[in-house]
UniProtKB/TrEMBL annotation:
Broad class of enzyme this protein falls into: transferase
Native organism: Noviherbaspirillum album
GO molecular function, one term: transferase activity
Highest taxon in the source lineage: Bacteria
Protein name (Swiss-Prot/TrEMBL): CoA transferase
EC numbers, comma separated: 2.8.3.-
Residue span of region Disordered: 348-370
Keyword Transferase: yes
Keywords carried by this UniProt record: Transferase
């Protein structure tokens, strides 16, 4: 921390005028890996500065979690002076990252066609709700609304319950990841052509892209997928189960793992019963299999069982809360916690590079310009 960037994106300059989540998350990833990211906020600041409590020095945790490794300033792009300053900043920039409503930058004379003619090497990345055209083109999109209309909520929740929002902004975050991928693809192509291009990551597209295996199942059998609670729709046992202590999640993906599980539970013959002898049978007879496993697991200690199964190659885990997950020794070992002297604590980068790892140089911009 506090060292000069040596990341894989060292020398790449990003002007980040995005707000809320998808765009800022993209900008943070680029910054973690060495890009010089300048976050430009409107005069009132990014809305997420107020999305608390909790707060650190008056800034909400929500904002702090998405905006490290960025320098900061404020500009009023609705005014000519602000737009002129942005154009000056873009003169030596590699990437413009924004999530303005389609037509806003165009109205200000800062659309892609104008910028690409003035800055032919610039990569212009837009995070949008639905894209610019089509039946929903240009409309605003938020994570929860996209979860609702992309089908995600319809397959999330208990089988006998209502559709349920995934408990984190999965669409916004995967859209941010897709924006990073698009930017990196465009940077790579620019080494050959010398030209920038327009990159768009839309929440709607990203939400649909998350529908595996539900979409793949529907393409094949034309059956509308339903909610299955914690259970996997295609394989079993891939579900949560009660134990004598804490709940356990079993993720048994093949016959070998199922044989090991049955032996560990003191019921090796279960693996050879006709209704459970192969993956298709176990999935088709999941109700009966679940009853048998619940009975076998009720006397087990979750921690010792997971240790035993993991050691033998069966994916499983005790179900932890957020505090337990963040305090787990492996979280620290994997360098997934970042602590800075100003009191900032955040999640580390999950992307590990051997020669050019992520670095954490700047806390999120405070309330003062620069």
């Amino acid at each position: 921390m506090g060292t000069i960037s040596t990341g894989s994106l060292q020398g790449i300059k990003v002007i980040d005028v995005s707000r809320i989540l998808g765009g800022p998350y993209c900008g943070q990833i680029l910054g973690d890996h060495g890009a010089d990211v300048l976050k430009i906020e409107p005069p009132q600041g990014d809305d997420t500065r107020t999305w608390g409590p909790p707060f650190l020095n008056g800034v909400a945790s929500y904002y702090l979690g998405l905006n490290r490794n960025k320098r900061g300033m404020r500009l009023d792009l609705s005014e000519p002076e602000g737009r002129d300053e942005l154009l000056a900043l873009l003169a030596d920039a590699d990437v413009l990252l924004e999530n303005f409503k389609t037509g806003t930058l165009e109205k200000w004379g800062l659309g892609y066609e104008v910028l690409s003619e003035r800055f032919p090497r610039l990569i212009h990345c837009r995070v949008s709700g639905f894209g610019a055209d089509g039946p929903l083109g240009g409309l605003p999109g938020y994570d929860a609304a996209i979860q609702a209309m992309s089908g995600i909520m319809s397959v999330n929740g208990e089988a006998d319950g209502d559709p349920l929002r995934v408990g984190l902004p999965v669409v916004d975050m995967v859209t941010g990841l897709n924006a990073v991928i698009g930017i990196l693809l465009a940077l790579n192509e620019r080494t050959r052509s010398g030209k920038g291009q327009f990159v768009e990551a839309a929440l709607y597209d990203s939400g649909l892209s998350l529908l595996h295996p539900h979409a793949a199942n529907w393409f094949l059998n034309d059956k509308t997928p339903s909610r299955t609670g914690n259970a996997h729709p295609n394989i079993y046992p891939y579900d949560s189960f009660p134990t004598r202590t804490t709940p356990i999640y079993l993720a048994v993906g093949n016959d070998r793992q199922f044989h090991i599980l049955c032996k560990a539970l003191g019921a090796p013959d279960l693996a050879f019963e006709s209704g459970f002898a192969d993956a298709g049978s176990r999935s088709a007879n999941r109700g009966l299999l679940r009853d048998k496993l619940v009975a076998l697991l009720k006397g087990c200690d979750s921690e010792s069982l997971t240790e035993q199964l993991l050691a033998k190659g069966v994916p499983c885990a005790a179900i932890l809360d957020v505090k337990q997950a963040l305090e787990h020794p492996h979280t620290e070992h994997r360098e997934m916690l970042v602590r800075m002297p100003n009191g900032y604590t955040g999640l580390g980068s999950p992307i590990k590079l051997s020669r050019t790892p992520a670095t954490y140089r700047l806390p999120p911009p405070d309330n003062i310009d620069g």
